[in-house]
Write a structure and sequence with these properties.
Helix 1 packs across helix 6. The radius of gyration is 15 Å and the shape is globular. With 164 residues, it is an alpha/beta fold. The chain has six helices and seven strands. Strands 1, 2, 3, 4, 5, 6 and 7 form a seven-stranded mixed sheet that branches.
Length: 164
């Protein structure tokens, strides 16, 4: 089965930051190729297999991927194993500090699926360090939303043009 040339954007967010970034990426993808935006809980193995490429957007919680993002990968990993090789992916991590561990964790999962990273990781640091700031709704700066839109556009254009 040949993958359809659409971009699947999978996201999870507790405080709105990752969701805002995922929606901005979907806006950027409009016009070049169809993007399908899925909350992590709604992603199915069939949806992953039908997509031409992926953008995974999620928060770092306690120095790891959020539980909902990890559960999505746990639920879909084996049904998709051997069926996604070579497909492009990119990531956006929304973090209160460095986000690097969540990024590494996601890349290890993508390596198991033999996905091909096609853009540098994007980590948006909200600098939320107090308990109150960590649980507060997040407002993502305009320049970071623009970067997410640009990433969505680049991924969708690459899929539509057959570059990936």
């Amino acid at each position: 089965m040949t993958a359809a040339p659409h971009l699947l954007i999978a996201w999870h967010s507790r405080t709105g930051g990752s969701e805002a970034l995922a929606r901005a990426a979907a806006e950027g993808a409009e016009g070049a190729a169809m993007a399908r935006l899925f909350a992590a809980n709604d992603v199915t193995p069939e949806a992953l297999q039908a997509a031409g490429g992926y953008l995974f957007v999620g928060p770092e919680n306690l120095a790891a991927l959020s539980g909902a993002m990890k559960e999505m990968f746990d639920r879909c990993y084996y049904p998709c194993l051997g069926k996604l090789e070579g497909r492009p992916y990119a990531t956006i991590i929304c973090a209160g500090s460095d986000g690097e561990n969540a990024q590494r964790q996601l890349d290890r999962i993508a390596t198991g699926w033999r996905l091909k990273r096609v853009a540098d990781p994007v980590i948006v640091n909200t600098a939320a360090q107090t308990p109150e700031a960590i649980v507060a709704p997040k407002t993502i700066p305009a320049d970071r939303l623009a970067a997410a839109r640009d990433l969505g556009a680049a991924l969708a254009e690459g899929l539509a043009a057959g570059i990936f």
